[in-house]
Design goal:
The structure holds 2 protein chains of 2 kinds.
Chain A: H1 4-29, H2 33-36, H3 49-59, H4 62-93, H5 99-109, H6 118-127, H7 134-138, H8 145-158, H9 161-169, H10 174-185, H11 187-203, H12 206-211, H13 220-228, H14 235-264
Helix pairs in contact in A: 1-14, 3-14, 4-8, 4-11, 4-13, 9-10, 11-14, 13-14
Chain B: H1 7-33, E1 36-39, E2 43-47, H2 51-57, H3 60-91, H4 96-107, H5 110-120, H6 127-134, H7 146-174, H8 178-186, H9 191-202, H10 204-219, H11 223-228, H12 246-256, H13 260-288
Antiparallel strand pairs in B: 1-2
Classes of the chains: A mainly alpha, B mainly alpha.
Domain ABC transmembrane type-1 (chain B): 66-281
Protein name (chain B): Cellobiose ABC transporter membrane protein
Membrane topology (chain B): Multi-pass membrane protein
Chain lengths: 273, 291
């Protein structure tokens, strides 16, 4: 053992590495261009942040874009929590013909690289007349293979098979079994799935860029990338935009963080043995 | 005790409807389009047989993009998985606060990550060149130089995913039965040997999962390199296409030149490459970590 000191140093560097890009974004966003052009780049935040937020609001409609992003991401989060949970429950605790084969298809579907299919998916969406509608941005992400897999795992671990069978023998409808037995047991993992789905959807860039008209229905990420385009990048302004757009996800993450970590690192309970 | 009821099928139906419409159908449709001259907006312009594929296999820009993709993937993934293993081992006895910290980069939007790193890696006023200058390194043109650009994009990918991967490894490590470690210790195995013969085989399924996920993610790499170039040439991957990945080239062909037939052929070639690549990666991991 190289000792506690060595480990603490490594962990400290790790946290520095994790947080420094966000910190540097704050520094740049709160400085003006003259500060940044000095021979020694500034290390501490300056006093121009609010001024840049004002300029941002004037230059681009980031507020509208963030509302669009929030609507899309919320719909995707709720849909994933609902659809993946019922599908996961069916795969884990109901017996039906073809169950294993269908689940194998779910797993295999994760191998189809979604982004490469961007042209044909666009054709489908266009044929449905959905170009530049929220449906185009939401529907392809309604339910994910990862989510189904995740919720099946959760149901296998948390929903007692005998209880489901007993309730069924007693004449309980499937809907009631799901509502009173399964759902309460997998609320935690379902919330985590909703949070991860929200973040994934909020962070999505290439699909909204293609499926929505950037001039009409921009999302936060699309507006940010356009702000940075052009021949000259106004970094303080762009990084102010970055900070503003990151806030909702970070807030959500902080609210859910303990739950996410607890569920992701599920083995934690066993370490005490 | 198989019940004759529709309910289970109804419960799993949403997944299959969405996957069918936005996964299977596009893939089949792409196969059809790839054998035609096809304009993205005006549509079919006649059967082309395998022309698109022949054209692609002789396209130097495609090989350029393929080489860039592989190079960035290797630079980003190999160190990332190794680092994540080390971090997981370090975090094994720490509280959840540390785990939250390492997960932060993963929830930051990739667009934001690219913009922040673009600024940090600026040639003239960037912090990284400033720090390197103190140890006598000449300013590096992170965007203009091929290898520097690959490294820059790879660092972004690593920054986003290392913590997440570490957390998955950590969860897997915690479910390795303690008795196995005790038995190995009784046999006189040192820390490294225990890691090699107990930990690694114990977390094999998770290792395979992360390798597959990063192989698929690596082949599809788009947003980080797309936004790495702040000079307004986004999409081309730099003035000399020095960091254009295949997904970027696909985007350029399909949505810049509206050549849907050619883009479709590229999609299929990539799909096959992705499958081959993933299988090879899985095979390699299987061989390295014996059961």
């Amino acid at each position: 053992m190289t000792g506690r000191f060595g480990r603490a140093v490594v962990l400290g560097l790790l946290v520095l590495f994790s947080l420094s890009p966000l910190y540097s974004a704050l520094v740049v966003a709160s400085r003006d261009n003259a500060d940044l052009a000095r021979a020694t780049p500034p290390l501490l935040p300056g006093g121009h942040l609010l001024e840049h937020v004002g300029e941002l609001v004037e230059r681009v409609d980031l507020a509208q874009a963030m509302v669009n992003s929030a609507l899309i991401a919320s719909a995707v989060a709720v849909a994933n929590a609902v659809f993946c949970t019922v599908a996961g429950f069916a795969f884990a605790r109901l017996r039906f013909r073809g169950r294993e084969a269908l689940f194998a298809v779910v797993l295999a579907s994760a191998m189809v690289p979604t982004q490469l299919g961007i042209v044909p998916v666009f054709m489908v969406v266009d044929a449905l007349g959905w170009y530049d509608t929220f449906a185009a941005a939401i529907v392809p992400g309604l339910v994910s293979a990862f989510g189904v897999f995740w919720m099946r795992q959760a149901c296998l671990e948390a929903v007692c098979e005998e209880l489901v069978d007993a309730a069924r023998v007693d004449g309980c409808s499937l809907a009631r079994v799901y509502w009173h037995v399964a759902l309460p047991a997998v609320r935690g993992p379902a919330a985590v799935l909703a949070m991860l789905s929200f973040a994934t959807s909020w962070n999505e860039f290439s699909w909204p860029l293609v499926a929505l008209d950037p001039n009409d229905t921009p999302t936060a990420q699309v507006v940010l990338s356009r702000l940075a385009g052009g021949y000259y990048t106004d970094y303080p302004l762009v990084l102010t935009g970055v900070l503003v757009s990151v806030v909702p996800v970070l807030l959500l993450f902080v609210l859910f963080a303990r739950k996410v970590v607890a569920v992701l690192a599920r083995g934690a309970a066993e370490t005490g043995r | 005790m198989v019940r004759r009821t529709l309910t289970p099928y109804l419960l799993v139906a949403p997944f299959f409807v969405v996957f069918g419409a936005f996964g299977v159908f596009p893939l089949l449709r792409t196969a059809w389009v790839s054998t035609h001259r096809w304009h993205l907006i005006s549509g079919d312009e006649g059967f082309a047989g395998l022309d698109n594929f022949r054209h692609l296999l002789a396209d130097p820009l495609f090989y350029n993009a393929l080489g860039n993709t592989l190079s960035i993937f290797l630079l980003a993934t190999v160190p990332q998985l190794g680092l994540a293993l080390g971090i997981a081992a370090l975090l094994a006895r720490r509280g959840p606060a540390w785990q939250v910290l390492v997960l932060v980069p993963n929830v930051v939007p990739v667009v934001a990550v690219a913009l922040v790193f673009g600024q940090l890696l600026g040639r003239d006023y960037g912090m990284v060149n400033f720090l390197l200058g103190h140890v006598g390194v000449e300013p590096i043109a992170w965007q203009a130089d091929r290898w520097a650009a690959h490294l820059g994009v790879a660092v972004m990918v690593m920054w986003r995913w290392t913590g997440y991967t570490a957390l998955l490894y950590l969860a897997a490590m915690r479910s390795v039965p303690r008795e196995l470690y005790e038995a190995a210790e009784l046999d006189g195995a040192g820390a490294w040997h225990r890691f090699r013969v107990v930990t690694l085989p114990g977390i094999r399924p998770t290792l395979l999962f992360t390798v597959v996920a990063s192989a698929i993610g690596g082949v599809q790499m788009f947003t980080e390199p797309q936004l790495f170039d702040g000079s307004g040439l986004a999409g081309a991957g730099g003035s000399d296409r020095q960091f254009q990945t295949v997904a970027m080239y696909l985007y350029e062909v399909g949505f810049g030149r509206f050549d849907a037939g050619y883009a479709a052929a590229m999609t299929w070639v990539l799909f096959v490459l992705c499958a081959v690549f993933t299988t090879a990666a899985v095979g390699l991991v299987r061989r390295v970590i014996s059961r």
